[in-house]
Amino acid sequence: MNVNANVNCEEIREQRTIRARDGDSRFQNLYSQYLNLKQDIVILQDKINFLREAAEYKSPSLEGGGGKNSYSDKIGKSAAKILDLKKELGEKQVQMLELWEQITDMICSLNNSTQRRIMIERYINQKRWDTIAREANLCERWVFRLHRKALDALKQQLG
Prior knowledge:
By secondary structure, the chain is an all-alpha fold. It has helices spanning 3-23, 26-56, 71-108, 113-124, 129-136, 140-158.
């Protein structure tokens, strides 16, 4: 795994956290946590796949001989690590699902149907702002205003 990729991930997380704090919105904070978990899950899945591939690869230098660094010992260590990672992956998936349920419940609680539609398209369907505006037959600036009003409404609902 690339160390620089981890550094960039941490920078992105920090930026998301700052944006969530600046907006002072529970919704944005939950969505930021959701995105972080989603990113963690992808990283864990990549690690699991890498370990599987490494365990399946049988190098000629590892054949025979036995001993401390034998092929079967490396497979056993990889299998144990995969099990640990799968447990962590399952826990993160459960957390992500719980956050997703909270996010969708919050969006569905909006009274204004246009605001609700914008939030669904943006956060659930993950559409771009220009696509949302075009499909809703609105200008982007108005979509941004409705989005801000929706966030404000969620903030008021949650106290």
